[in-house]
Amino acid sequence: MARKFFIGGNWKCNGTLEEVKKIVSMLNEAEIPSENVVEVVVSPPFVFLPLVESSLRPDFQVAAQNCWVRKGGAFTGEISAEMLVNLGIPCVILGHSERRSLLNESNEFVGDKVAHALSVGLKVIACIGETLQQRESGSTMAVVAAQTKAIADKVSNWANVVLAYEPVWAIGTGKVATPGQAQEVHLELRKWLHDSVGAEVAATTRIIYGGSVNGANCRELAAQPDIDGFLVGGASLKPEFADIIRSLTVMKSQL
Ligand SMILES: O=C(CO)COP(=O)(O)O
Question: Is 166 a catalytic residue?
């Protein structure tokens, strides 16, 4: 079953108003394949979401980088999933490793967030991934399976979930996973989904790779059968992002 390629740009906590306007113009002018071929989502910091949502080309979508785990209320500093829906923001990134490690978000907390965001109609890019220490001790699959299980325990409909495998050691380090390393985990994850959730979910859920993806390394990664796109950090702030969107399609269409 065909899975539409998915490219996310995670801007993280970057950008001034002027820089954001420049990135949006750059994206608006970029020549990229039709939205029938590739789904593109960019994720600016919360404060820039309305600006980006209203000025970005209509064939790209926007995503928030986080949201609160339940309905809003007395949770100072948080942004609720309902508010995102209210502003017409269709998608949210949840469980990013920076939040898991710096803000102690547990697997269960991330699972609850994913379930709540889906319940109000958001699409979710759910991030998982192992640390270098976990990889070196041979527990990569156990770690990502536990992270995915915590989501699967709370979610019954996977239609609006994209799973982002982002090995922590590859994020922002320039040390991209080799195509073989990434494919191995993506394939194992798909098998896990098959055995633990179901054949249909395993066949249709996009599993995208994140961690030091750039214009130079994306083609080889994109050629892997179980890599359905990318979640791009640093390179999503640069014109290179358009190359990543393009080269993915070129590569897959040649297969
Ligand atoms: O964390 C990432 C995307 O969510 C990846 O970041 P980099 O592409 O900067 O390594």
Answer: yes
